[in-house]
Amino acid sequence: MKKLFVIAVLLVSWAGFAHAAGNHNLTWEFYGSARISTFYTNWNVDMLDGPGYNPFAGTGADTDSYEQDLNGNARIGANVTVNDSLTAKFEYGAKSGNANIRILWAEWDFGTGSLGVGQNYTPLLFPYANQVYNIYALGDGDTCMSLFGMLYGKREPMIRLKFGTFQIAAVKPRLLVNSYYTYVGNAIAVPQSGPDTQVVIPNIQAKYRIDFNWGHINMATGFQQFEVEEDGDSWDVTSYVLALGGRLNWGKAYFKGCVWGGQNIGNLADILVNGQVFSTYENACADPIVKDGAGLGFAQWSDGTLHAATGGAYGYEKGIVDNNALAALIVAGYEIRRGLYLEAGYGYTRTKLDTDGAEKDDCHTVYLQSTIFLAEGVSLTPEIGYLNAVQNGQPEVFGAGIKWQINF
Question: Does 387 map to a domain?
Fold first, then answer.
């Protein structure tokens, strides 16, 4: 409540200052969206088959649960027009019940293009799915398959140049690696911290869109590189993504989809193959002393202690092992009548550590929904969905429920 009060005071002060300065062209268009999700879920997880924390279900092998929460992407914001060449936008969300900045953005149109500064959606965005249920955390809001096949680089601080349908941006880097299990005394332990990092260049992303009468095609790419350092040694962590997507309209039907992949993509876009936060061995040997990992798309860092303590029998030598990943999404929808839509989607994600003997770790996700508009701005979205992380010990999740939404 205090945060919202401070925001309100700042907005009033800003508007008053602009008026006092004689800027009579300044306009504010406020908007909001209230969203609640009510879902029944069933998790089937064999947590005894490997160590680790599972964000899908916490603990327990088979759990049924009713969930109701304010969607994290419920929002309030405003579009601001200063003059013909200068516009701005802010948007606050309600993640975990607290106000958080989703977008804070200003853009200057200089004629041949535009310069944008602030926090906004990065160029690595193909918004092709409308999935409601958030398997990872209901309070985060609509997943939209952003972890399970849709290309989503999040909303990040960036500097962006845009020329027509081409855009290129310098984005705040993500400096993350997965820490391999270490060896403490005579026991295996999860490391509490990783190596030091050093970054020289920003995260670079670009996207180009081709529009035609019955749809469009999107192409996108991203690149990032930073170093991890420990005891005077350093290793490069290089991330890249290549992506292709598009939409086709055919009467009242539409088809959308994308395929994308690359190396260490967790530092560029979201992916989730399994429920293990600590990405560890990921089937890299026939006798996996620590199971699961690489599921978030990050490179794997090892301090070498487990490798040395076991005489090289388990674990990696000190350094970085790259993570290769692939994701795909296909969505089909139909407008049954005005205000009534039907949509189905399928997503696939796969990760694999780049080392001898490593096996792919993959995941399949499907959903079916109907969006029903009861009045202008008022809608219900019943949905059922299923996730299968395939590998032994990883989760199966079933969800069925409704999103309740009123835009204002």
Answer: yes
Q: Which one is predicted more confidently, 125 or 193?
A: 125
Rounded to an integer, the average pLDDT of 264-281 is 71
319: CATH:
2.40.160
Q: Where are the beta strands (DSSP E) in 174-252?
A: 178-179, 182-184, 187-189, 196-199, 203-212, 215-230, 233-250
By residue range, what is the domain housing residue 201?
36-71+111-407
How many structural domains does the chain have? Answer: 1
Alpha helices in 33-174 (DSSP H): none
pLDDT of residue 400: 95
Q: Is residue 236 domain-resident?
A: yes
Q: Which residues pair with 154 in a beta bridge?
A: none
Q: 391 in a domain, yes or no?
A: yes
Residue 269 main-chain phi, psi, to 5 deg: -150, 160
Tokens 């991890």 belong to residue: 228
| pLDDT, tens only, 37-65 | 999 988 776 543 433 334 444 445 567 78
Euclidean distance between CA atoms 278 and 349, whole angstroms: 18
Q: What residues contact residue 290 under an 8 Å CB cut-off, 6+ apart?
A: 50, 51, 181, 188, 280, 281, 314
Q: Which two tokens stand for residue 389?
A: 């992380």
Nearest to 206 by CA among 180, 169, 175: 169
For residues 283 and 325, give the distance between their C-alpha atoms in angstroms, rounded to a whole number: 15
Residue 191: band (very low, low, confident or very high) from pLDDT cuts 50, 70, 90? low
Supply 145's token pair.
């398959």
- In order of 160, 326, 384, 389, the CA distances from 280 in angstroms are 35, 19, 32, 16
86 in Cβ contact with 111 (< 8 Å): no
Q: What is the pLDDT of residues 130-159, one digit of tens each?
A: 999 887 666 677 889 998 999 999 999 999
Residue 103 domain flag: no
* Residue that wins the pLDDT comparison between 287 and 133: 133
Q: Is the dihedral of CA 111, 209, 336, 130 positive or negative?
A: negative
